């Protein structure tokens, strides 16, 4: 039957008799424990190939040296998996569900696996949508019990995944559309509906100080939105890594102060960025103190 509730990764056991399993990374080497790669099968149980299909046979039945101990014949399954610490196999998804968004390679199955264990989530799937040309967004579709909160889900996912793997849009459905063979019909998933921001958003800008309003104005121009709240997350409003580089340049020009890109990934609200820009001296002093300690240790 279908697994509807899980508190951890779904494992699929281990190899059967006369076979062995390799989890292969992008360099055709054995992936470390916990790292996702393509599940490949070797051993006496591997067939010779596909009958009368030489091209597919050459693609799927390969000679690789994943352990550095000599080449072995392996069957590429196209499944993505990882070994758990107790030696079990955890299924992640299909290799054909691997996507590249703004230069980052993303395993959609890995995002789905992290989302599936969040409170009140029954079923989920994640896709890349490009409803506006050139603007690719990770979008999560969820069926959930009462009490599911997309904002809390985003916070939880940020603890488990890099920012670029956290869906920016969540759509809650009664049921996921399925194909006749019972798989999620990704082509039938609906386009997200824009939700008007509450009127209280307008009043929140009135509470901003001068520096906060300067930062908010840069956000509005970059993200093409009218309203920005003090504690909105840049990525939740449609920001991404490429826009973050532009934001860094505009903040530097506006405030005549440098702002390391790594800090932008850590300070993702108007409030945090304005505080940083209004006190660059403190940040620079801290950096100089750190450099001083490093130099003293080097001389010791």
Task: Looking at this protein, list some descriptive labels.
single chain; 300 residues; alpha+beta; Luciferase, domain 3; GMP Synthetase, Chain A, domain 3; Non-ribosomal Peptide Synthetase Peptidyl Carrier Protein, Chain A; five-stranded antiparallel sheet; three-stranded mixed sheet; 9 helices; globular
Please provide a written account of the structure.
- With 300 residues, the protein is of the alpha+beta class.
- It folds into three domains: 19-94, Roll (Luciferase, domain 3), CATH 2.30.38.10; 102-188, GMP Synthetase, Chain A, domain 3, CATH 3.30.300; 200-286, Orthogonal Bundle (Non-ribosomal Peptide Synthetase Peptidyl Carrier Protein, Chain A), CATH 1.10.1200.
- Helix content is 33%, strand content 23%.
- The chain is built from nine helices and ten strands.
- The chain has helices spanning 54-60, 108-116, 150-160, 200-206, 210-223, 241-255, 261-266, 270-278, 280-299, and strands at residues 19-24, 37-43, 61-64, 72-83, 89-94, 98-101, 104-107, 121-132, 135-144, 169-172.
- Strands 1, 2, 3, 4 and 5 form a five-stranded antiparallel β-sheet that branches. The chain has a three-stranded mixed β-sheet with strand order 8-9-10. A two-stranded antiparallel sheet has the order 6-7.
- Helix 5 runs antiparallel to helix 6 (241-255).
């Amino acid at each position: 039957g279908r697994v509807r509730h899980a508190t951890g990764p779904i494992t699929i056991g281990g190899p059967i008799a006369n076979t062995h399993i390799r989890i292969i990374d992008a360099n055709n080497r054995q992936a470390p424990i916990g790292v996702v790669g393509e599940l490949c099968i070797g051993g006496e149980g591997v067939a010779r190939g596909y009958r009368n299909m030489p091209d597919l046979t050459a693609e799927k039945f390969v000679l690789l040296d994943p352990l550095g101990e000599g080449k072995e014949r392996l069957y590429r399954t196209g499944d993505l998996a990882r070994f758990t610490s107790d030696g079990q196999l955890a299924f992640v998804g299909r290799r054909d569900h691997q996507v590249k968004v703004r230069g980052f390679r993303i395993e959609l199955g890995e995002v789905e696996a992290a989302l599936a264990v969040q409170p009140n989530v029954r079923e989920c799937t994640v896709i890349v949508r490009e409803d506006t040309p050139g603007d690719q967004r990770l979008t999560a579709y969820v069926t959930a019990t009462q009490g599911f909160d997309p904002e809390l889900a985003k916070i939880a996912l940020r603890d488990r995944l890099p920012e670029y793997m956290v869906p920016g849009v969540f759509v809650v459905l009664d049921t996921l559309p399925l194909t006749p063979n019972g798989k999620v019909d990704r082509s039938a998933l609906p386009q997200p509906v824009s939700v008007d921001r509450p009127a209280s958003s307008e009043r929140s800008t009135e509470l901003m100080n001068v520096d906060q309003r300067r930062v908010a104005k840069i956000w509005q121009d970059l993200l093409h939105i009218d309203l920005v709240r003090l504690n909105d997350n840049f990525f939740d409003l449609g920001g991404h890594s490429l826009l973050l580089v532009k934001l860094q340049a505009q903040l530097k020009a506006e405030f005549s102060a440098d702002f390391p890109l790594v800090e932008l990934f850590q300070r993702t609200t108007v409030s945090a960025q304005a505080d940083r820009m209004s006190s660059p001296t403190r940040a620079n002093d801290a950096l100089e103190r750190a450099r001083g300690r490093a130099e003293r240790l080097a001389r010791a």
